[in-house]
Amino acid sequence: MIDKIKILAKSYFRDTVKTRRHLHQHPELSFHEEKTGRFIADQLKAMKIPHQHGCAVNGVVALIKGKNPKKKIIALRADIDALPIEEANKVSYKSKNKGVMHACGHDVHTASLLGTARILNELKEEFEGTIKLIFQPAEERLPGGASIMIAEGVLENPKPKNIFGQHVHPPLEAGKVGFRPGMFMASADEIYVTVKGRGGHGALPHECIDPVLISAHIITALQQIVSRYSNPTIPSVLTFGKINSTEGATNIIPNEVKLEGTFRTMNEKWRKVAHKSMRKMARGIAKSMGGACDFNIVKGYPALINDTELTNRAKQNAIAYLGARNVVDLPTRMTAEDFSYYSQEMPACFYRLGTGNSKKGITSPVHTNTFDIDEEALELSTGLMAWLAICDLKANK
Questions:
Q1: What tens digit of pLDDT does each residue of 46-88 get?
Q2: Does residue 229 sit in the same domain as residue 82?
């Protein structure tokens, strides 16, 4: 079976590259993936794979039924949305949509799952069970397309036993993959703060309540949430990435300042405590300096926990496909993924696909305007996922 899958992955490789480049040239932002969804549906139609288009508006769900289709059902997931980034790469398949780019590799995920679908569809008479394909919109924006698709019943009729997903990983060379059982990725919350003061002339600060100064104190003090309030054994990150005032100048103190940030951790109990502590500290500082503070936390994705047994089994199957030297153990990551919602519903395995190539200069991280992949990874991405799916259908659990 490995040989059959590898032959098919190789034979479809050029088509997978073509699909990836088409998607890369035509990226669409979260909740706006209309053309992407139609493209996926058209590809599945051409393969004669039954599918539904419209879950969570732009999502697509398909079924590949083998022999005895009710014996076991598993799911494979790919996300389809892009990021609001202007691409700087000088490549023939550069994004044609100004200010929008597949800078997180979702074009790779989608093209890979379509390639995997072709392989599995060819082999459906050689396995028992059903494989559900989930092409999910809006991974990059809260509340996350995964939560919406789950609410709309994507994990029902039929209900999968297990679910797999893969994600590009530039630090890992193409030809390799990485796994981590158990806790893998952090939860992610968005923080929106408005610090209110009383504006005036910059030369007369005694007549004002300076929200810029208050904001500086709040940002500095809130770092204690991680460095002093948190148990050091619990990973936590607090970052403010945006400070803004619509007023203000070199000689003008504004009336208010807006802050935006993110809080991430891997412990739900501490997450709740940290939220309460941040609000209390920020409001207290603002009040003590004569101002006020609106502190809003938008609760985001939960931590991603890979099922230990499923992930260890998938790792061993990957070793059988690739060899031990091409399968690595990954550390935990403070990045977040809405695949975590699936992991709360059933045993899940989210693994990393090596896409870097230092010799070719392909080293840019995700979420940057020069991100790209070594497309040789697309032969592995399609074949390995097909192999993992077939292996899991054969497993008793």
A1: 999 999 999 999 999 999 999 999 999 999 999 999 999 999 9
A2: no
Among the listed residues 81, 107, 173, 375, the single catalytic one is: 81
CATH code at position 220: 3.30.70.360
Same domain, 25 and 155: yes
For residue range 317-327, list pLDDT tens digits in order: 999 999 999 99
Give the pLDDT confidence score for residue 246 in this predicted structure. 83
121 and 161 assigned to the same domain: yes
Q: What is the pLDDT of residue 314?
A: 98
- Identified catalytic residue from 28, 87, 107, 139: 139
**CATH number assigned to the domain comprising residue 7:** 3.40.630.10
85 vs 267: CA distance, rounded Å: 31
In angstroms, rounded to a whole number, what is the distance separating the alpha carbons of residues 217 and 209? Answer: 13
**Same-domain status, 56 and 110:** yes
How far apart are alpha carbons 265 and 122 in whole angstroms? 43
Give catalytic status of residue 139 as yes or no: yes
Mean pLDDT of 34-44: 98
**Residue 16 · residue 108 · CB < 8 Å:** no
Domain containing residue 242: 189-298
Domain count, the chain: 2
Contacts 24+ apart (CB under 8 A), 91-100: 91/372, 92/21, 93/21, 93/22, 93/24, 93/25, 94/24, 94/25, 95/24, 95/25, 95/26, 95/27, 96/25, 96/26, 97/26, 97/27, 97/28, 100/27, 100/28, 100/29
290-299 pLDDT tens trace: 999 999 999 9
- For residue range 121-137, list pLDDT tens digits in order: 999 999 999 999 999 99
Beta strands in the chain (DSSP E): 51-55, 59-65, 73-79, 130-136, 162-173, 177-179, 182-185, 189-196, 200-201, 236-244, 252-253, 256-265, 292-298, 304-306, 327-329, 348-356
